[in-house]
What we know:
Strand order of the largest sheet: 1-3-2
Distance between the termini: 73 Å
Transmembrane segments: 12-28, 40-57, 63-81, 102-122, 134-151
Protein name: Tat pathway signal sequence
Largest sheet: 3 strands, antiparallel
Keywords: Membrane, Transmembrane, Transmembrane helix
Structural class: mainly alpha
Strand content: 5-15%
Pfam family, one: DUF6622
Helix content: over 70%
Shape: globular
Number of strands: 3
Amino acid sequence: MLAQILANTPRWVWILLIALLYLGLSQTRNRRVSMKKITIMPLAMLGFSLFGTYSAFGSDGLILLTWLAAGALVFAWVFSVPLSGNIHYDAPSQTFNLPGSWVPMVLILGIFLTKYVVGAIAANNAALLHELSFSLSFSALYGAFSGAFLARAARFWRLASQTPDLSAAATALKS
């Protein structure tokens, strides 16, 4: 059955997986990242997650509330974890110096695999998508990944808002 599922997977899904693997691997190296890039990926993954929930289970209020609740709980948990001392924000250039991390890869693949599994089940047993326990479980999983992505970005935004712009202060002192 697994071989049949893999064989019937459209080629574009494998291309998307390769692109996501590349994106995830790029996060494992030390890098300098702009505020814009810190913001784009979590928003894109949130959209992918919400699309996955909506396309599989529809716009049922309980499903979307479950997605939102799981996202909010995981957001609160991840947001409460302090950033590593190796992360620095440079206010003048509005960039972050980040150490490499495998966490983004795990989150990216988590959303991808969730969408893949739900798609495979939809193709082989569509009735399961309408079972409440199944749809609530997977919408919560989608929401949890979204909450983690957003909280990681929000921790960077918080660091940026708390970092004084020393170049502006130095310019003011010279005046």
